[in-house]
Structures are given as C-alpha cells and as structure tokens.
Here is the input.
Amino acid sequence: MTPLSATPLATSPTTLDSLLVAYGPLVLLACVLLLAVVKAGVVLALLRQALGGIPPAPLAAILAIALSCFAMAPLAERVHSALSTPSSPPSAGSLAVEPEKQLEAGLRPLREFLSRHTPPRDVQAVADLSARMRPQLAPAPGTPPTLPALLLAFVLSELRTAFLVGFVLLVPFVLIDLLIGSLLSGLSLAGLSVQALAVPCKLLLFVACDGWQLLVRGLLLAYGTPHGAPTGP
Here is the structure.
C-alpha cells in the first residue's frame, strides 16, 4: 500500500488548462463588472459624510456595486461575446478553445475600453513611474501600455473624477452648515446642534433637486460609448 506522503501532488497541465477555461472567464467578467466601483464608492462615501451618515454604509456599498455592474454591463457583454467566439478553430486532440487565446480575445475589449476612458496624461504618468521603478523593463517609445498600467491609470483617473464630483456635491451642503451655524449664533442658540438642524435641510435640498437622478446620471453617463466608437470586439 502506497503511503499517503508518497502520493504525487503535482497538477497536470491538462487540469490547469481546464481550470483556466472554466474559471478564467468568470474572474475576468467579475473584474470587468467592478471597474466603476471606485468612483461610485468614493462619491457615495462623500455623500454619506455630507448627509450625516445617510444612507448607511452597507447600503452605500451595495448601491456602488449595483451602479458599477449596471455601468459595465455593455462592456461585460462584449467581453463575454469575445470569450465565446474563438478567433480560430481548435486543432484536433486539443481543448475546445485554447485558454491563452480565449483570454486574450476577452481582454481585447477591456483594453479598448480602458484606452478610451483613461486620459493620456495618466497613462504617461504610470509609464514614467514604471520606468523609474523597473528601468530594465521599461517599454520602448511608442509601445502600447500593458494591461496593469492601463488599469492603474484608469483607477487614478477615476479617483480624480470622484473627488471633483464630491467637491461639487459637498459645496451646497457646506453652505447650509455655515448658514445654519450663523443663524444659531445670531439667535444666541449655540447650545443647539448645527448638524441636527442641517441634516433635514440637506435632505430637503437633495430631494428637491432630484439629487439621486442627477448623481446616478453623472456616474453612469461617463462610461457611455462615444458616437462612432466600436461596440464589438
């Protein structure tokens, strides 16, 4: 009887290829659906701070994920279509689709999306940073950026946009805090909480301006496909 410790634990290449074919597209689609969660999460966190913790943090996180999935649904459909349509027929005796070619086909729409929605200055900044950290691996001039570099540049641009949206969102609420604080000081009611009186006014302003619709439109329309841009792989 063979001892348990002597049993080989190595995984065969066929098993690794099968796992890559089975779970690689799922992981890629999940990452694609969460691309917009950075901007949505930051903006909703700033909104919570301005409204005194409304909506609750779990609800804000769920809303950020839902908005990200809705915004990235067209891209996820293009990635899924590229993953499901092999560019070349499989050879005899091999898997139905070679994993490397399948994932490369699925990454093509993602690269196009990141290139279209990432400012060139962020891409160049990441390229310069990568060249300083790893000079021996610096790409030649004119070489397209790698996918990790595109992802980092995209996240940086999303953070900058989220801060700009948050600034525009917070200015009216800060003015309400200043106005109510001045009124309480002028009426000698300094014992009253400014936050307790400001939150109802902020909620009224947010609802009166149809803030949720404006906020959602501002978060989602930025990911729309420009006129004339390709929508397929």
